[in-house]
Amino acid sequence: MQTDSDTRTHRRPAGPARALRKDRTSLTSLKRDPLVRGLGVASAVLGVPQVTRPGEFARGVGVEDEPRNRLATTAVGVRDLVAAAGLLGRPHPAWLWCRVGGDVMDLTMLARALRTQDGGRTRRTALATAATAAITATDVYAAVTRTRGITTLELTSSTTVAKPPGEVYGLWRQLDRLPTFMAHLDEVRVTGPRTSHWKATAPFGTTVEWDAETTEDVSGERIAWRSREGADIDNSGEVRFVRAPGGRGTEIHVTLRYGLPAGPLGKVVARYFGEEPSQQLDDDLRRFKQVIETGEVVRSEGAPTGKRARGEFPQRPARPLTEDELREALS
User: Fold this and answer.
1) What are the residue boundaries of the Coenzyme Q-binding protein COQ10 START domain, all occurrences included (predicted)?
2) Which one of 104, 237, 244, 283 has the fewest beta carbons within 10 angstroms of its own beta carbon?
3) Looking at the structure, do residues 292 and 212 belong to the same domain, yes or no?
4) Are 169 and 259 within one domain?
5) Domain-embedded: residue 268
6) How far is CA 291 from the centre of its chain?
7) b/e sequence 294-328, b meaning 16+ C-beta within 10 Å
8) Which residues contact residue 191 at a Cβ distance below 8 angstroms, ignoring those fewer than 6 apart?
9) Nearest alpha-carbon partner for 234 in 255, 271, 261, 197
10) Angle at 200 between CA 29 and CA 148, to 5 degrees
């Protein structure tokens, strides 16, 4: 039996072709997104009067109509029109983040104006500040949520098991058994000859679901799949079963690709909370090796409940059970 060192995961950025395909899918989705289009229209509606009538617009928000303020208002209007063109023409999360940056600048200028005003103009500026703050909150929400799935993470891992390729393929092909060794999976339900429904636990206990279709299935050699439209997290992958040299069994090579929630920030936060994706894949393959070679995930006496203990499969040194653990194991 191989040791834990037989399982290795390598993480690398998706290649240019994969990244391009993913970006095109995201752009198509953003073009149909009502919130993104609504923010594009709002940028246009605000930008036109700022450029064509900067003095009147400045007075409307309680700012003095002077050359410096007219110039600043015009610049803000041009920025809004550029953002509108981007969001309505070639939408991308970068345009949403540009709006967030512009909102911060607007709030800074309005706050400075509030400190130097009094009377009726102060009231108008305060109302403009409140409206801008509400728009900022909407822009931040749109930028964060629409960034999901843009960053593609690719993981590869491999291990060797002491079983022939046909048997290894046969176990992996039983999709409803995958949650028995994959910690993040809660349920896999076969819905058709080449389709299935998946439910998983994402970082912070969030549940995500998606429908998947098998794109390639070569008995004893290879299984490939991808998520269908409407998935909470776009993903795809493949697993190859290769006869190991010297009759040592089967090499399993797994490749997973998925859109990372909240982009790079999501990866950093997930790692901080102990949910490093590459480590998860290593652990999943290690448990698969245990299942196919011994018939079960090997656990010590000190961790009889396995997945329920932490939403995964904890491994601890053997020790006598406490009364509470014994009661839970027997219930």
Assistant:
1) 161-285
2) 104
3) yes
4) yes
5) yes
6) 29
7) eeebebeeebeebbeeeebbbeeeeeebeeebeee
8) 197, 211
9) 261
10) 30
Q: What would the two tokens of residue 81 be?
A: 């029109």
Contacts of 118 (CB under 8 A, 6+ apart): none
How far apart, in whole angstroms, are the C-alpha atoms of residue 311 and residue 142? 30
- Pairwise CA distance, residues 96 & 98, whole Å: 5
How far is Cα 331 from Cα 324, in angstroms, rounded to an integer? 11
**What region does 311 belong to: left with phi over 0, alpha with psi -120 to 50, or beta?**
left
Structure token pair of residue 116:
């130097």
Residue 27, in any domain of the structure: no
Last residue of one domain, picked from the residues 121, 147, 173 = 147
**Is residue 64 located within the same domain as residue 188?**
no
CB distance 49 to 99 below 8 Å: no
CA distances from 77 to 53, 108, 194, 207 (A): 10, 16, 52, 41
Phi, psi of 105 (to 5 degrees): -65, -45
Length of the chain: 331
Both ends of the chain: CA-CA distance in Å?
33
At 55 the pLDDT is 81
Residue 28 in any domain: the answer is no
Regarding whether 263 and 307 lie in a shared domain, the answer is no
Please say whether the beta carbons of 197 and 179 come within 8 A.
Answer: no
41 within 8 A of 84, measured Cβ to Cβ: yes
pTM for this predicted structure: 0.52
pLDDT averaged over consecutive 10-residue blocks of the chain (331 residues)? 46 36 48 84 88 83 78 86 86 82 83 73 82 88 70 83 95 92 89 93 74 95 92 87 93 85 55 64 90 77 44 50 68 62
Tokens describing residue 20: 């391009």
Range of the domain at 322: 299-331
197: β partners: 189, 211
| Selection from 206, 187, 196 nearest residue 145 by Cα | 206
